[in-house]
Amino acid sequence: MRITVVEDNTSLRKGIAYRLEDDGHSVDALADGDAADQFLRQEASDLVILDINLPGQSGLDILRRMRGRDDPRPVILLTARAATEDRVAGLDLGADDYLVKPFAMDELAARVRALARRREVAPRQHIALGALRLDLDPLHLHGPDGSMEVPRRELTLLAALAEARGAPLSKDQLLDHMYGTGSASDERVVEVYISRLRKRLAPFGVAIRVRRGIGYALDLGAA
């Protein structure tokens, strides 16, 4: 999944992002309420983890605006407030879940998995890629002889291409999926991972084609 994390505490924000990325998710991490509100109006994601106390707009303000424009994305609220009325206020505004700081990362990961299962439209659990099967949650690739060991970044890139269903994705779009929006990673990183994936996929009849000036797309018809 692509997850937006909005948390102004740098250590906590990085800790959440690292854990979610280790679980195979793509993370966009933001620290400011106003920037987060603008980001959520423009960018797609599957789930939002939202701190209540933020510089600029509060998390509750952001949530109110999301639900006001019929944005159905699941939201987990984070806060240091333990009072019952604060939890009730967040849930009444449309939050799907609530965690009070401090919390264990294992618990957050479990809440994320639970919300993924509860999404109104169930996501596809796997995608057939020629002789291969790509599991989406958690990310894993299977071949004719069973499970394949593939580095996480390669899996994230492959999932982005697979879910595009043959439509080309630019290097910037692929970087966003691999590292989150605003990453300082060089576009040449994409070329490295594309090259590795091509070698890995070629024996199974799956190719990655270049659409010059546009980006990369999967081709399942390769011999």
From TrEMBL:
Residues 2-116 form the Response regulatory domain. SMART domains: REC, Trans_reg_C. The keyword Transcription applies. GO terms for cellular component: cytosol; protein-DNA complex. Coiled coil: none annotated. The modification 4-aspartylphosphate is found at D51. One of its GO terms (molecular function) is phosphorelay response regulator activity. Keywords: DNA-binding, Phosphoprotein, Transcription, Transcription regulation, Two-component regulatory system. GO terms for biological process: regulation of DNA-templated transcription. Residues 124-220 form the OmpR/PhoB-type domain. Residues 124-220 bind DNA. This is Transcriptional regulator.
